[in-house]
Specification:
Shape: elongated
Order of helices and strands: HEEEHHHEEEEHEEEHHEEHEEEEHH
Length: 379
């Protein structure tokens, strides 16, 4: 989950906005650039509550109706406003069985002000600001699906690669200036086969030519690059333990993981989740990636099975350096890793370090990784 989820406590409303005036906006953070379809035409508009709202925008009309029912905490009417196709309605129905007063706090809602709208496919994320009768304000991002008719969606509540990726881009877009000068060379990331309102990404990489090491030659390999040295040190520590030949209890593995990983992973003793990309390639040369998260013990076990480490490329984003690595185990099973390294102590960073969560979520989005991997491997 990203900080857009955790710090702002958001959920996103997705829609099709036929009445909206959309345009692509370019954002740049060092070596990563991205374009989002953004609409500013309704920024500052108030949504009338409890009364009929006049608007040529179907999203605004829907939000007026939705907040009107939310103020009344009318669970049955609210249920009908949740989207069926992505499971939102079912999940809402289950939630209100134990929490029938989910929207009871909305009785104190005085007004809702619209902000920017970010689009991807048929989905749109809408910035809103709630103002209570006492004058308190809360910045929020609402979430609606208007493919045919508008409905609330709760997709961001559920851990999924697509919306973690989208929300991470929104988080960064909200905190960075729009770049005026346009550039070419973007890869399109489509939400579905229709590929309307695609997200466009451009990533500059420094390729690492023939940089690799394995269990047998690791002690002979010398790297001048401090970040390459950090990865080498990690595997020196891991392979030294010969974990595959040991039969340890979980408690022993837990202590060993903390001791070994502390050399190279910042705050490794915390129960951090380490993202891992498993490469799945079939006989037709079709490549896709499955992202999983590993706890420290699972990470140690995973690294212990690696036989070959290929350093493929690197790049700098914000204050951190990112390495693109290919791991190969004895069964020739491959995985592709994107690791953030802190410039101060060269240790591997994982969430919740500032920006690492968002940048890593974007870089490790499976659809984008497929593009990067094909480019780096010339497939």
């Amino acid at each position: 989950m990203t900080r857009l989820w955790k710090n702002l406590c958001i959920f996103i409303l997705f829609t099709s906005f036929s009445a909206f005036s959309k345009n692509e906006q370019l954002f740049e953070i060092d070596n990563i650039k991205f374009k989002l379809v953004v609409d500013n035409s309704n920024v500052g508009e108030f949504i009338k509550l409890k009364v009929n709202h006049s608007s040529n925008n179907n999203v605004v009309l829907f939000l007026s109706d939705f907040y009107g029912e939310a103020i009344k905490n009318d669970v049955e009417k609210l249920r009908e406003l949740y989207y069926v196709d992505d499971g939102s309605k079912v999940r809402f129905s289950e939630e209100v069985k134990t929490n029938p007063n989910k929207y009871v706090g909305f009785k104190n809602l005085k007004s809702v002000t619209l902000g920017k709208i970010y689009s991807w496919g048929d989905y749109n994320a809408i910035e809103v600001q709630w103002t209570s009768v006492s004058g308190e304000t809360v910045d929020w991002i609402e979430l609606v699906n208007c493919r045919l008719k508008c409905f609330i969606s709760d997709k961001l509540y559920n851990s999924n690669d697509d919306f973690e990726f989208f929300s991470s881009l929104i988080y960064l877009a909200q905190r960075n200036e729009v770049v005026k000068q346009d550039i070419n060379g973007f890869d399109e990331i489509c939400y579905d086969e229709k590929c309307n309102n695609p997200i466009k990404l451009s990533l500059s990489l420094d390729r690492a030519k023939k940089l690799s090491f394995n269990r047998n030659d690791i002690k002979k390999i010398k790297f001048d690059n401090q970040y390459f040295k950090a990865i080498k040190l990690l595997f020196e520590k891991v392979w030294k333990e010969d974990l595959l030949d040991k039969n340890l209890k979980y408690s022993e593995l837990d202590q060993l993981a903390a001791a070994v990983l502390s050399c190279c992973i910042k705050d490794s003793r915390k129960r951090s989740l380490f993202p891992n990309l498993e490469l799945i390639e079939n006989d037709d040369n079709y490549i896709r990636f499955k992202k999983v998260y590993l706890m420290p013990v699972a990470l140690l076990q995973f690294l212990s099975k690696v036989d070959v480490v290929n350093i493929v490329a690197s790049t700098k984003i914000a204050t951190d350096n990112y390495l693109f690595l290919e791991f190969i185990n004895k069964d020739n099973k491959k995985s592709f890793e994107i690791i953030a390294l802190n410039k101060v102590d060269n240790k591997i960073l994982v969430a919740p370090y500032p920006n690492v969560s968002e940048i890593q979520t974007i870089l490790m989005y499976p659809k984008f990784v497929e593009i990067i991997y094909r480019r780096l491997s010339n497939k």
